[in-house]
Amino acid sequence: MSTRTTLLHTAESLRTRARAGRRAVVMTMGALHEGHASLVRAARRVAGPEGEVVVTVFVNPLQFGAGEDLDRYPRTLEADLKIAEQAGADIVFAPSVDEVYPGGEPQVRVGAGPMGTVLEGATRPGHFDGMLTVVAKLLHLTAPDVALFGQKDAQQLALIRRMVRDLNFPVEIVGVPTVREEDGLALSSRNRYLAPAERRTALALSQALFAGRDRHAAQEALRARAASAPASRARAAALSEIGESRAAADAHAVAESADPSAIGGPAAVVAAARLVLDEAARLVPPLELDYVALVDPADFTEVRPDHRGEAVLAVAARVGSTRLIDNIPLTFGVPA
């Protein structure tokens, strides 16, 4: 059942509104789709029936670089209001640029630091400084107890968490899993720019991630077998001598699996994803790869060959004039 949603345009009108319970905020740049709706529904669950869900709609000029799509970025406030209402939002806060930046372009901004210079930060210099600046301002203006962000923008989520921790913001940050279409394509406001042929090529992003995930799952299964039933190289050699080649190969693989490099490790996961992306580069229209990387979610540096713990397999590419990103989380190492 939908909630009656109030549209507000000023910080004063939001500040003077009576509130009870927890306030959960979902920050968007508009052009809402099912991915945003899933964030709002998650916020509704977090806030509870007595709490309040606020959806911000603001196209932030600071996070668009030269030649990027600020002017063509879709503005669909009326449709956004309906989607937010159906998903359970109490308020849509849609401030003007002057409301958010009353003195014009701000001279004091939040710097993203080293994590803001790699992957997306390397491709889009200054993007994360602009993103963090507006998130900081909107956290002040909306004063939430909890803010929810999509895991599709994994580097953005990691930076927001770091900013909140480093600058002592009194807010809980919650990540919500990526929503995908039936064919695997991650939902994005930019998908609407894709022509049918471009969309077919764009499927390579999620297909590459799934190929990396499958390689990872196979490696982890082999490592689990090594932990539960260790074998020796001597046993593999003995089996080979009596002609049990298949069993010998299996025993050898299990014996070697204590060494991550023996069964591929992170490099093999990236290679499996890259193979799909290389094939997509030969399609018409082609996929133009920006990067594919397996990184530590704490700082977005590439993981070591012996990495254990959480990781993010991330990809970014351009199809035609549309740039898309995607990622999936992976965990390396078998629990004791």
Give your account of this protein's structure:
With about 325 residues, this protein is of the alpha/beta class. It starts with 5 loop residues before the first strand and ends with a strand. The radius of gyration is 23 Å and the shape is globular. A six-stranded parallel beta sheet has the order 1-4-3-2-5-6, sandwiched between helices. Strands 7-8-9 form a three-stranded antiparallel beta sheet, with helices on one face. The longest helix has about 35 residues, at about 195-230. The chain has helices spanning about 10-15, 35-45, 75-85, 95-100, 120-125, 125-140, 155-165, 195-230, 235-240, 245-255, 265-280; strands at about 5-10, 25-30, 50-55, 90-95, 145-150, 170-175, 285-295, 310-320, 320-330. Residues about 255-260 have low confidence and may be disordered.
Largest sheet features: 6 strands, parallel
Low-pLDDT parts are: 253-258
| End-to-end CA span | 45 Å
**Estimated radius of gyration:** 23 Å
Q: Strands of the largest sheet, in order across it? A: 1-4-3-2-5-6
Using brief descriptors, characterize the structure shown.
18% strand; 11 helices; 6-stranded parallel beta sheet; 3-stranded antiparallel beta sheet; alpha/beta; 336 residues
